Amino acid sequence: MMWSEKHRPKKIMNMVGNEEARSSFVDWLVKWKKGAKPVLLIGPPGIGKTTLAQLAAKEFEYDLIGLNASDVRNRANIEDMLSPLLGNTSLLGRPMIFVDEVDGIHGRADFGGAEALLKILKEPTVPIILAANSDQSVKMKNIRKATKPIYLKPLPPRLLGLYLGKVLKEEEAKLSPGATVKIIIESRGDIRSLLNMAQAQLGGFDPPTEKSFERLDVEAGINAFFKAKSKEEAQIVLYSLRIDPREKINAFYSSLVTSSLPGATLAKMLDVVSEADMLYGKIMRTQEWRLLRYLDNILLRLYGENVQVQFSQYNLSWPLLNRLRWDGKTIKALSSALAKKFHVSQSTIATFYLPYILFCIKNKKMDLEVSPEYAEIIQKEIGLLK
Amino acid sequence: MSWRKIPMKFPGTCIVCNQKVEVNEMGLWAKGLGVKHEKCASQEVKELKCIICGGPAGCPKCEFADDCDREQVSEFCVCKKCEGLADSFLQYQKAVQKNFSLLNLKQ
């Protein structure tokens, strides 16, 4: 189990850091009454915004309805989801709404969702908690005005060290002083990163020395994923690969198809990639971004011990890619020269004429007068004819 | 409370170095707090507070001094002495309980 989940605090009191922010949040919730301004938790990832909302619901006996920015992208969606909760609260227990990543509602992807949300924020009938990484964008201006902002900050390194010490003690694990300091510094006040890095380090996965494990690039990430010693470690690596989902799927695809895996294993793995691809296609089609959380779970099925896969940027083998690049260029030039001779387009030559021309040359039925620079490619292509 | 950078209309005394801030000199002013020289403000080092003992956290001598942006981090830390206590995390939790009683919710 991931330490960041295992050691998630059970009470607001047991959280670490941001004592004043936590206190003013609790104060808001204690004094909350119908019509009171919703609260906006602002702060970088991994410092407990979601945990705070979840624990508040638990400790104050609310039923937490969690949404994220993708759920509130369009007006119809938000009205369908929230209107029943706001209209008749007695039938539905004690709802509390939590909208995560509210700074993610932006651009053309927003079909009136921001306005619909603002309308609800102005007349709340249930406690509403919003969370955002930053409130500096112009689009956040109206949301900030309609809410009570509470800023959560990264933790000072020494306090992180204190917390890490407590977790290590509970796990009966030990890290070298050098590794501890490195993890504390590289986590930059982010508790989730701190625990992920410590767990990865103790799991035998040594993060690259120069850069943070949390910011693995795609090449290092794919290689680390297939070299992982356990499924748990592979999961941490996958989680650290915070790149565009399309790029992630493509990277796995190109690495797999250029590997030398046995056919049956490759087929199984390509099935997994295609499942991930279908999920991403569905997300793009329906704009249901909350489904994105399942992508890593699907890709995790690619992990297997002793699977020899190396990252490859291109989805074709190097010799084939090389031939396409260099021979392709010459064939294009040859087609262009032949197009003038035959009075047809370059693509017609390349697609329809060239194979027959090559056959004719091979069978000595045609003496083609072309520049000698094409002799080599013509002979190469003739050699490939079956 | 925010410090405003303004040209001085009246003479004043810097709250950091205790020297005069002359008229027309650029300085920082905050209502109710006073004035300070620009260079004094840049030399001022914010120090975090130890939540356990209530004293300064000892930021200038902290091993993480170069990696801790004290303007940006959560306001409380722990000093070296309190960090070295056998049950330091428990002490931290007790201090939070004592200083922020509102967080001590009973289910």
Task: Describe what this molecule looks like in 3D.
The complex is a heterodimer of chains A (about 375) and B (about 110). With about 375 residues, chain A is α/β, with parallel strands linked by helices. Helix content of chain A is about 55%, strand content about 5%. Chain A has 17 helices and five strands. A five-stranded parallel sheet of chain A has the order 2-3-4-1-5. In chain A, helix 4 links the parallel strand 2 and strand 3. In chain A, helix 4 packs parallel to helix 5 and helix 12 runs antiparallel to helix 13. Chain A is elongated. With about 110 residues, chain B is an alpha+beta fold. In chain B, about 20% of the residues lie in helices and about 20% in strands. In chain B, the strands form three sheets. In chain B, strands 1-4-5 form a three-stranded antiparallel sheet. In chain B, strands 2-3 form a two-stranded antiparallel sheet. Chain B has a two-stranded parallel ribbon with strand order 6-7. In chain B, a hairpin with a 3-residue loop joins strand 4 and strand 5. Chain B starts with a strand and ends in an 8-residue tail after the last helix. The model of chain B has no long low-confidence stretch (mean pLDDT about 85). The chains are: A alpha/beta (about 375), B alpha+beta (about 110). The interface between A and B is medium-sized, with 34 and 30 residues.
Q: How would you describe this structure in keywords?
A:
heterodimer; A: 386 residues; alpha/beta; 17 helices; 6% strand; elongated; B: 107 residues; alpha+beta; two-stranded antiparallel sheet
Condensed summary:
Chain A is an alpha/beta fold and 386 residues long.
* Overall 3D form of chain A: elongated
Mean pLDDT of chain B: 87
Determine the N-to-C terminus distance of chain B: 37 Å
What is the H-and-E element order of chain B? EEEEEHEEHH
Rg from Cα of chain A: 29 Å
What percentage of the residues of chain B does DSSP assign to strands (E)?
15-25%
Average pLDDT number of chain A: 83
Tally of strands of chain B: 7
Structural class of chain A: alpha/beta
Helix content of chain A: 40-55%
**Sheet with the most strands of chain B?**
3 strands, antiparallel
Helix count of chain B equals 3
